[in-house]
Amino acid sequence: MNTKEMIKLYDEYVMNSYIRVPLSIVKGKGVTVWDAEGKEYMDFFPGWAVSGLGHCHPAVVDFVKKQAEVILHVSNNYYHNWQAELAKKIVDNSFKGKVFFSNSGAEANECAIKAARKYGKGKRYEIITTLRSFHGRTMACIAATGQDKVKIGFEPMLEGFKYVEFNDIDALKKAVSDKTVAFMFEVIQGEGGINIADQAYLAGVKQLCKERDILLIIDEVQTGMGRTGKMFAYQNFDIDPDIMSLAKSLGGGLPIGATVAKNKIADLMVPGTHGSTFGGSPIVCAAALGVFEAIEKGDLLKKTREMGKYLVKKLYGLKKDFPFIKEVRGIGLMVGVELSIEGDAIYKKCMEKGLLINCTQKNVLRILPPMIITEKDIDSAIKIINDVMKEIKP
Ligand code: PLP
Questions:
Q1: Is the whole model's pTM more than 0.90, yes or no?
Q2: Is residue 267 flagged as an active site residue?
Q3: Is 248 known to be catalytic?
């Protein structure tokens, strides 16, 4: 099937809920993907941050292949070693607590929201989140998300959410009430435009949450699993979550969600309070264990920090020729280029020239290459971005 034929079938049979570009992807290996016509692309935004190790990483493929011949699914009224091992691995790499497994980032946040409400014991249920946040597309998650665009047409919203400016401790202090049970946020807003929390703000958040017994829910769905050069982005700062949500690159390409909560919260989620038929199945847990192995054996956290610095330096270097670049910001391989013009034409032209990146909030190029990239890959990508910027120079 060629791309045109695929698009025709999508138009007829698939709900049109996504903004899609006319590109099909039929194969991926490492940094490279191929379309149905055989054209090659460098993927610097692999699967909205899902393929953090690049496409079809051998460690993940190997774990999945082996597991596929043993058993694919075990329901959650039984035990299996893969879920047990993965939960331990996540906790060993983050903080002492327990894990609930689901299938997506939104589900991981749903569990976080439910667990926080349990902790509030019916007296405190309010969750404060930040403007320009993104927490997923379920009804609770669009209510949690601090952007009106995701809510339009789906009102009335679930009650109990308040929104405050990101990086503004006074706004947070003002918003807290005797109903507040949690503050939920991303330490680097992804969809919101690669906005990085500053340490002074986080110190204030930490103190306030401690004083008022407010739970800190950190959404690591996009930032987690090494993307920032630490296993979890919060580890770049002096802050600890009470609850953390994970998804995307945890599964190495397979659908997974995970919610980690400190024991004082996790232990409230007793039998019957929450569940998921597919959550934590052997095959996805095996894939996730493959992801951890690949990061550890490949020393990928260190490489991510090094390549991240190189990428930011190279992007920064473009600034002198293209004054419409306002700012380059990022940690590790989670990088944003803020423009004073709209970025749509740039990312589309990059695609035509064989480089996949993203544009968010209309004017921030979002560049999240896989942790396996090399300086040579970055040089090739920068050349394409440079050529495109020359062409569109306003
Ligand atoms: N949280 C964050 C920070 C995200 O970036 C996303 C997706 O982009 C989600 C939650 C929702 O994840 P999913 O699409 O897997 O439900």
A1: yes
A2: no
A3: yes
